[in-house]
Design goal:
The complex is a heterodimer of chains A (120) and B (186). Chain A has 120 residues and is mostly helical. Chain A has helices at 13-39, 44-68. Chain B is mostly helical and 186 residues long. Chain B has a single domain (19-183), classed as Ferritin (Up-down Bundle). Chain B contains ten helices and no strands. The mean pLDDT of chain B is 81. Classes of the chains: A mainly alpha (120), B mainly alpha (186). At the A-B interface, α1 of A face α4, α9 and α10 of B.
Chain lengths: 120, 186
């Protein structure tokens, strides 16, 4: 079995940030599809999309937790060798939490905002 | 029950603290159209809701509102770090600071502590769903846009804007569902 948390100290930060961003994006898709399915419980296309996205999310989350540390409260919180990583790693509001990955589109707001009356 | 996920729904890294923005954005946490009210409204209305589909939406939207509570709280935490007494006074944050320092306390921008007087739970399907629609309708006008226009920091704007984009029609969908399937009227 793979050793838990190979890179807990952030030796592969770029991969970690990109993986976390990917997890965020897929989570968003799973969440939105969940809401749609609540109102349309028999929609076959939505169900197929949900299954695909959920499988991808579980795979990516498993990969992240093995390599970098716990993400879910019921995931792998730590080990006898590594200690309880859940409280040893930064919380998501802290500035040392892994920052966004290499996604240039995130440098701008997704839609042009009304900037009238603001200083450039 | 709920399980915590150790990540934000959308990542936030504020480069430059700004107590003035914080003093405005706090209303999105504990103000009349804030996230704490939204979460409390949806999660509380579930118990008297007679339809499974609607209970599902209230559960999942209410849960997501808790993630928004955490996002707005993160904005406040990061915007108010490393402040000098002069910056606090100049930004008008002094009246908040004297009671809460830079702790994240759910209140409106005018200082009213969070109250459930902001929300409605009536135990009636249409009354509650219309309350939800009304709350949802505050999003484009009253919520992020007024606060976005106060800010120029990229992460503040983007994360508030995400919430604006999430102005979904979930509740309109369930009201239509209710009317079509259950009442067969509209």
């Amino acid at each position: 079995m793979k050793r838990f948390c190979d890179n807990c100290n952030g030796t592969d930060n770029r991969h970690r940030r990109n993986l976390l961003d990917r997890i965020s994006a897929i989570s968003f898709a799973v969440g939105e599809t969940t809401l749609y399915l609540d109102g349309h419980p028999n929609h076959r296309m939505a169900l197929a999309y949900y299954t695909k996205m959920k499988n991808e999310l579980d795979a990516l989350t498993g990969e992240y937790e093995m390599k970098y540390g716990p993400l879910s409260g019921l995931g792998i919180g730590g080990s006898e060798q590594q200690g309880w990583q859940w409280v040893k790693q930064p919380w998501p509001w802290e500035l040392n939490y892994p920052e966004g990955g290499d996604h240039p589109e995130l440098n701008d707001p997704p839609v042009k905002l009304d900037t009238r009356g603001e200083e450039e | 029950m709920w399980i915590y996920e150790k990540k934000l729904q959308y990542p936030i890294h504020i480069k430059k603290p700004n107590p003035m923005y914080a003093s405005i954005i706090i209303s999105q946490l504990g103000g009349p159209d804030g996230e704490l009210g939204a979460a409390t409204r949806y999660l509380s209305q579930r118990f008297s809701m007679p339809y499974n589909e609607v209970i599902g939406i209230l559960t999942d939207v209410g849960t997501e509102e808790l993630a928004h509570v955490e996002m707005i709280s993160t904005l406040l935490y990061q915007l108010t770090r490393d402040l000098t007494p002069e910056q606090i006074a100049k930004a008008g944050l002094d009246k908040y600071f004297v009671d809460h320092t830079t702790g994240v306390y759910p209140a409106s921008a005018a200082g009213t502590p969070f109250t459930t007087a902001y929300i409605g739970v009536k135990g009636d399907v249409l009354a509650d769903l219309n309350e939800d629609l009304a709350a949802d309708a505050t999003i484009p006008q009253a919520q992020p846009l007024s606060k976005i226009n106060f800010t120029d920091e990229k992460w503040v704007r983007t994360s508030l804007f995400l919430k604006y984009l999430k102005n979904r029609n979930e509740f309109e969908i369930v009201i239509t569902l209710y009317c079509n399937i259950i009442l067969r009227t509209c």
